Amino acid sequence: MKALLRRYHVYMGKASGTGEEKENYLEMGGIRIHEEFNEVFVDGAAREMSDIEYHMLLLMMRYPRNFRTKC
């Protein structure tokens, strides 16, 4: 029985066994991006963005140390 449960968790994932699904969010400084639905929330309020704006913001939030300002 233990081996069967172990295989189930390996192939189906641990989150699916608990009934909970992990939401795919990125959060930083009051900005929250839901990657699955391409939604952006700023301080809890939904914001409309163009595709280019959304993808630029997504890149900056995924790799925050790769973006620098000229000083």
Describe this structure in words.
With 71 residues, the chain is of the alpha+beta class. Strands 1-2-3-4 form a four-stranded antiparallel beta sheet, covered by helices on one side. A hairpin with a 2-residue loop joins strand 1 and strand 2. The termini are far apart. The mean pLDDT is 80.
Give the SSE layout:
Blueprint: H1 2-12, H2 14-18, E1 25-28, E2 31-34, E3 39-42, E4 45-47, H3 51-62
Antiparallel strand pairs: 1-2, 2-3, 3-4
Supply the key terms:
single chain; 71 residues; alpha+beta; four-stranded antiparallel sheet; 3 helices; 39% helix
- The backbone outline, from C-alpha atoms, is elongated
Give the strand order, joined by hyphens, for the main sheet: 1-2-3-4
Radius of gyration, rounded?
Answer: 18 Å
Helix content: 25-40%
> What summary fits the major beta sheet?
4 strands, antiparallel
Reading the helices and strands in chain order gives: HHEEEEH
Beta percentage is 15-25%
Low-confidence stretches: none
Which structural class matches the secondary elements? alpha+beta
State the distance separating the first and last CA atoms: 62 Å
> What value does the average pLDDT take?
80
The number of helical runs is: 3
Q: What's the number of extended β-strand segments? A: 4
